[in-house]
Specification:
The protein is an alpha/beta fold and 448 residues long. The chain is built from 13 helices and 16 strands. The protein binds 2-acetamido-2-deoxy-beta-D-glucopyranose (NAG) (2 copies) and zinc ion (ZN) (2 copies). This is Peptidase M20 dimerisation domain-containing protein.
Length: 448
């Protein structure tokens, strides 16, 4: 960073000092690292913390499934109205996109997903889900709250944000591909970078974890109907048994990962659904099986999809059955792998290190789970990370999608401060850097 850039940064930084909200706790003008620290102190203030806890509990009590987040969306808009933050609505049906700052570049987006899961909450507490069979068991209620918390901090500093922070409240993450729909609605036009948080019940509170490059797998679903000829279970010679054929199909599918895949290229094929028959003495006409497949690279993913179809149809025919295979019913797109941008990883490590201490910024192995944040990170530089919630003195924290899943509300200020700091310092740094000259030295060394 050149001297003049440092001067302009220092100037912008001093402007932060003059705002009422940051006057106490006081900032010492020691440079950028103070901004995240200051933001965490703001987010931990009782008036901000209690407000966030209230929002989170309200959303938790009224969980809504993908693309049905009408009340959640209404609550988000009411809070944005209250703060005087302009927004676009509806985006992708129930989504909301807010804007803080100048309305001009650079644009940086921070994202929260809004939807709940179709499952019954088993945690007995005052703010248990009031909707039978629906539950926020993935922490998306906390994600929305953290983004609103960040919005509050950012809005109080809006006059010194020399760019625009885009608040992305996204519907339908849990298998609905809401991110894709938001993209199709142009949410990321002109946006330079996007950040996303997921809470993690298995990591300690006050820590974050992520990695550069592939973080989460690409994912798809398959379903197959294997049809034979039903009949009396005691007279198998007059039937074509789809139960046995389906069983062999499932065993053959196991060979894809164990025998055909490169052991160093992680992949999963799981059959999670098997439906057929209903009586002890009847061979059914057909069996339906279904499952998921995961991979990190596009080529591997496409190859796996093709082999799944071949193995099912050909193995079924060995036993005189017919099979039809469909992928991602109702035409949902496959989730790509979530790949973190390497420059944003450096930015994240610096900012998170300033807030949490560098020893609490952990590098993790990739996971075979998937996230539709991947759609965003596929088209612009994106960065997704996990925020720890585990606090052993508060009992066991069950994993995501468990009916006993609990959010540790003490994590809310960390999420709010991380969102706000990642966006603010991204804009400050972008503003302080002159545009790279056209045709970098790298290009000159590698003429195409
Ligand atoms: C499989 O499909 C062929 C061609 O449509 C049909 O002739 C045959 O009866 C089917 N077999 C079964 C077991 O459904
Ligand atoms: C963990 O929980 C205890 C008991 O509620 C609390 O005193 C402590 O501050 C918590 N730790 C963190 C890092 O939040
Ligand atoms: Zn989930
Ligand atoms: Zn989730």
């Amino acid at each position: 960073m050149g001297f003049s850039q440092w001067l302009s940064l220092t100037f912008i930084f001093h402007a932060f000092l003059s705002l009422p909200i940051s006057s106490e706790p006081s900032l010492s003008p020691e440079g950028l690292p103070q901004i995240p620290v200051n933001f965490l102190e703001l987010a931990k203030r009782p008036e901000v913390f209690d407000w966030m806890v209230g929002i989170r509990r309200k959303i938790h009590e009224n969980p809504e499934l993908g693309f049905q987040e009408f009340e959640t969306s209404k609550l988000i808009r009411a809070e944005l109205d209250q703060m005087g933050i302009p927004y676009k609505y509806p985006v992708a049906e129930t989504g909301v996109v807010g804007y803080i700052g100048t309305g001009s570049p650079p644009f940086v987006a921070i994202r929260a997903d809004m939807d709940a899961l179709a499952m019954q909450e088993s945690v007995e507490w005052e703010h248990k889900s009031k909707v039978p069979g629906k539950m926020h068991a993935c922490g998306h209620d906390a994600h929305v709250t953290m983004l609103l918390g960040a919005a509050k901090i950012l809005q109080d500093h809006r006059h010194v944000i020399q760019g625009t922070v885009v608040l992305v409240f996204q519907p339908g993450e849990e298998g609905h591909g809401g991110a894709k729909k938001m993209l199709d609605d142009g949410v990321l036009e002109n946006v330079d970078a996007i950040f996303g948080i997921h809470v993690s019940a298995s990591r300690p509170i006050g820590t974050v974890a992520s990695r550069p490059g592939p973080l989460l797998a690409g994912s798809g679903f398959f379903e197959a109907v294997i049809s034979g000829k039903g009949g009396h279970a005691a007279i198998p010679q007059h039937t074509i048994d789809p139960i046995l054929a389906a069983s062999n199909v499932i065993v053959s599918l196991q060979h894809l990962v164990s025998r055909e895949a490169d052991p160093l290229d992680s992949q999963v094929v799981t059959v999670a659904k098997f439906q057929g028959g209903g009586a002890f003495n009847v061979i059914p006409d057909s069996v339906t099986i279904g499952g998921t497949f995961r991979a990190f690279s596009k080529e591997t993913f496409i190859h796996l999809k093709q082999r799944i179809e071949e193995v099912i149809t050909k193995q079924a025919s060995v036993q005189r059955c017919n099979a039809t295979v469909t992928f991602n019913d109702n035409g949902q797109p496959f989730f790509p792998a979530t790949v973190n941008n390497k420059d944003l990883h450096v930015h994240f490590q610096k900012v998170a290190g300033d807030i949490l201490g560098t020893q609490n910024v952990l590098e993790m192995q990739p996971l075979m789970g998937s996230e539709d944040f991947a759609f965003f990170a596929e088209v612009i530089p994106g960065y997704f990370f996990f925020l720890g919630m585990k606090n052993e003195t508060q009992g066991r924290f069950e994993s995501e999608h468990s009916p006993y899943f609990r959010v540790n509300e003490d994590a809310l200020p960390y999420g709010a401060a991380l969102h706000a700091s990642l966006a603010t310092t991204y804009i400050l740094e972008k503003q302080s850097k002159p545009n790279p000259p056209k045709g970098s030295s790298h290009d000159e060394l590698n003429p195409s």
